[in-house]
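anyone seen this seq b4? input:
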Amino acid sequence: MDTSTICVHGCKKKFDTTGSVATPIFASATFAHPGVGQSTGFDYSRSLNPTNVHLEDTVAALEGGTEAIAFSSGMAAVSTLMELFSPGDHIITSDDLYGGTFRLFEKVSQKNGVKFSYAATPKDIEKEVTKSTKAVFIETPSNPMMHVIDIAAVATIAKKHNLIFIVDNTFLTPYFQKPFSLGADIILHSGTKYLGGHNDTLSGFLVVKSNDLLEKLRFIAKTTGGCLSPFDAFLIIRGIKTLAIRMERSQETAKKIVSWLLEQGTVKKVYYPGLKEHPDYEISLRQTSGFGGMISFSVQNEQTAIKILESVKVIKYAESLGGVESLMTYPMLQTHADLPESDRRARGIDECLLRLSVGLEAADDLIADLKQAFGN
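predicted toks r here
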């Protein structure tokens, strides 16, 4: 079945007998047992809830996985993932990561004895493998520098060394990128972003193909309790229904904005995987069906960056991404504020870098807003 059809209709599991077109919200913390030692399949919503199961199975179907587990946020999903590992274990990650993930790794996971090293390319990743390495964790495209990593090449390395291979697929979603088909073991999403798509709720997902990993993660999720509420699950289900058309529209508009940005003298560089001059353009062509709606760009100085942020009107100066409203972010002060300054600058995250999540407004209106913010 086509991805866009799965988005609209969701999974085949139904727990309602009324014929309701919309998935009902099962607002129950607990479920009665038919008898001693018997269960309807649902006991307590921290473990399983019918609304959540419909959402989880929908996300799993979109990614081509066995099952998905829904969480209260993307970071709750990453935190659960880290509980797979023990003190002394080593994880290799891509060197350009969402700041919240980096913060968790550096400030929490390392405190708990898990070690990390950072690498930019598959070749660099393999150089970091040691006897204690247990996993590889990548974002592609990366946040905020839009690096693209060859998923199939990393999968080959992970398989060779018997490592768990984790891919954060938040930016492109299963509509534009299918990491399982390229060899991933676990797919991560901040469902707050494109899956929800309306900037109105938080969620996170882990999607797996292996029953062994599923059992481990289900146990950890149930035990640590970072579950998604059925009300929020309903909002994400509703958001996914329009995922396909939102991804297409935001990409179409992003390409127009990129073309405009390239003509501006105050713009030093544009970071967008759909540009032919992007160093990873050919990799994107091989492993994705689209480039998405995320753009980063550098302007000539800090004053220009601040002026743009304080002057945009249609575009909102706010954290997050992937919603119907276009949002502009200042990574050095927002998403990546917790990175040491030397690390930020080494990655290109400085006072001149801006990140734009392109929403569903008319392209001409967004460009007009940027023109006035640039002072054109």
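The chain has two domains: 3-240, 245-374. The domain at 3-240 is CATH 3.40.640.10 (Aspartate Aminotransferase; domain 2). kinda curious what u guys think
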